[in-house]
Every structure is written in structure tokens, then in C-alpha cells.
Amino acid sequence: MRPGTVWAVRGAAGALTAAALGHTLWNGITEPGTALAFGLLITVGELARGDTVDDRTGHLPAGARRPAPLGSAGALAYALLGQNAGAPTHHGVLQTVAVVVAAALAGTVPHIARGHGPALDHLARRVLTVAFAAACFQPFHRSAGPADPVGQGPLLVPFLVLLLGLTALCDAVLAAALARARTGWPYGPLLRDELRALAGIGSAIGATGVVTALGVAVAGLWALPVFSVPLLLTQLSFRRISAARTTYRQTIASLARATEIAGCTRPGHARRVASLSCAVGRELGLSERELTVLEYAALMHDIGRLSLADPAPAGSAPLPAAQARRIAGLGGEVARQTGLPAEVAVVVERQADPYREQPVAARIVRVADAYDDLAGAARNPGGSLEALERLRLGTGREYQPEVVECLARVLRGTRPPGKQTPT
Question: Most buried one in 74, 126, 226, 314, CB count within 10 A?
């Protein structure tokens, strides 16, 4: 973890928030009715946000990358608001930040009461991105005269779209930097995942924010519920989808424990292999979707053992190649019948192939599986160091050298598997 980046972002957001609140309290709120309406919209968005956290990473899952889309859209709309029913607005950048922060904090009170603390990094990003959008739009809009074709004419919409793209890019850069600081994962894949998320809920947030600001400029504050209800319904749908994904993953994890209950693998083996595989996958730059496939395959990689008439007990000698291929093939068939994605079944059934013929996910699972078997086996008194050396000796055919070295880097930066999920 690199706390310097986290504290730099939080410090910048905190200093900006203190200046905004102080300025607003000293000078009073300009156009309080408009500020109250947008504040209520942001508060409702925060109240409706989910609290689902990814068990693998300890952070928001990919599908919930924007935990409060309605609140984000409302904050963006207030930052881009130039008129209210045809009358110019006069709230500035600092008041915009003050209203957004106050409304967001008010919306987090019920979450804190349920034991979910405020998402400080999310709030810091919200402050900085809203301040960026307001700083680009508010001074420009006030300086534009009635005859200005960009400030008041048809070119206003392209200007807002351009500003929206810059704001989204700013938020993605901040999100990736904070994730990099928390986890130590490569910055490039994190930024790529953030940019991919912009094509989904991120685009809906931006479009709603721009359309809401333009709607209020023409129709007044009555436009707020008209344009916010669709995104609110979408946000509630995302909560249900996120809950379904969590249940789905828990079901797969429970199914994977069948090999432990049957005595085919050591207790916690599937969980440890999945944890190590995801850490190695992150280090190698896999995307969120690829990590999901990797995790499911790691959990299910030994499920084929249950199909054998006489499965080998945990801690026994390595299986013959023919039996290993049979187990892999049976495991892939079980994965298909379970309804898992086809990519997961392919990774499972390719476990016994030479690594040069395997997909990347299968190479990772194979190395993590072998390491956990070697490090925990009673016949290997040398523990993790000797297990890594034995993996390195097998890089000629059994294991990909890059994956083994990546595993070594992961192990140097984390506690032993089973004590802490690699992050």
C-alpha cells in the first residue's frame, strides 16, 4: 500500500471542502431553493446506494464501481447548472462543493448506523471531480454574453459533452490511483477497468447529469424528478444484480468445499488457490472479467476428483498424468453442467495440459494449486521457500516461469495464504 497517494487525494479534497464550507458559511447560500433541491437529490442518491463489497478484494466489485450513481449525477448537474427556468444562476465553485459534501454526508448517516462507515475515497473523488467540472464551467458560463455562440447557443451541448469527458477521465485517473495505492496492483489494468466502466453506468451518470442541468435551465426545478427517476430505478436494479452476483459466488464457493468434505483436498485449499490466483492475476494485469473467470475456475479446479470411483485422499502423492487429465476433463464437465461460463469450464479442463498449450488463467491456477499443495504437504518440511524452488525447477514443462516469478512477488508482499486475502 502507498499511503502517500491516498493521503494526498484526501488532503486535497479535505482542504477544498474546508474552504468551500467556510466560504459558504461566511457569505451565505446563493439561491437556497436551488441548492436545497439539488442537495436533496444527492442525499436520496446516497441513501439508495448499496454497500456490497467484493470478498476477494475488500472493495467495491466491478459492477458497483459507482456506488451512488444518482448522487454522482445530481452533483454533476449542479456543477454544470447555468440557468434555472431561463434565469441565470450565481452559485460558484465553492458553494457547489459545499452543497455536494453536505448532501453526501447526510446521505451516509443511515449507512453509518448500519455499521458501514463513509467511503472516504469515494467522497474525495466526488469532491475533486465536481470541483473540476464546476471550475471549468461556472466561470466560463458567467463570462459568456447572450450573443456568445458557445455559452448560450447550440454549441453549449458539445461543450458540455467535452467537459463531461474530461471530468470522467479525471475521475477514472483518481480512482485508479487510489486503487493502486490501496492494493499495489498495476496501475495500467486498473485504469483500463475504470475506463471500461465509463461505457456502462458511467455514461448513464454523465448523460443524466448533463440532461438534468439542461432540463432545469429550461423547465426549472420540476425537471429534477423527471430526469432522476430512471437513474434511481437503474441504481436499485444494480443493487439487486450485485446481490445476485454475491449469492452466485457464495454458491460456487460452497460447491468447491465438497472436495474438502470428501477428504480429497486439505481444508481451505480451494479458497487459498482462488485467493492466490486472483493476486497473481492482478499482478499480471488481468481485467475484472478475466479475474472473475480465474476465481471461479480456481474454486472449481479440483471438483473432478469427486467423479472418480476411488478419489485420492488429501496429501497423497502426485497423480499420474492420465488420471490428472481425466480429473480435469470431468471437472470441466461438472462446471458446464453447473451453469458456469464456458471460459471457466475451459480453464478447469485444461489443467493437466502442458502450460504452453493452456490459456493464461489455467497457467495461473496450476501454479497456485501446486504451490498450495507443496507448501502445506507434510512431506515438504521446507515450507513456502522450498515449494517455490520446486516450482522453479518445474518451469521447463509444468509451469510458466513468468507466473511462478509473479507468485513469488505476491508472496513477498503478503502474509501466508489463509491469513489474509492478497491485495
Answer: 74
pLDDT at 156 over 80: no
Question: Over the chain, what HEC string results?
Answer: CCHHHHHHHHHHHHHHHHHHHHHHHHHCCCCHHHHHHHHHHHHHHHHCCCCCCCCCCCCCCHHHCCCCHHHHHHHHHHHCCCEECCEECCCCHHHHHHHHHHHHHHHHHHHHHCCCCCCHHHHHHHHHHHHHHHHHHHHHHHHCCCCCCCCCCCCHHHHHHHHHHHHHHHHHHHHHHHHHHHHCCCHHHHHHHHHHHHHHHHHHHHHHHHHHHHHHHHHCCCHHHHHHHHHHHHHHHHHHHHHHHHHHHHHHHHHHCHHHHCCCCCCCHHHHHHHHHHHHHHHCCCCHHHHHHHHHHHHHCCHHHHHCCCCCCCCCCCCCHHHHHHHHHHHHHHHHHHCCCHHHHHHHHCCCCCHHHCCHHHHHHHHHHHHHHHHHCCCCCCHHHHHHHHHHHCCCCCCCHHHHHHHHHHHHHCCCCCCCCCC
Summarised one tens digit per residue, pLDDT across range 350-387 is 888 888 888 899 999 999 988 888 887 545 555 677 78
Mind listing the pLDDT tens digit for each residue in 293-314?
A: 999 999 988 888 876 656 555 5
Nearest by Cα to 259 from 312, 302, 310:
302
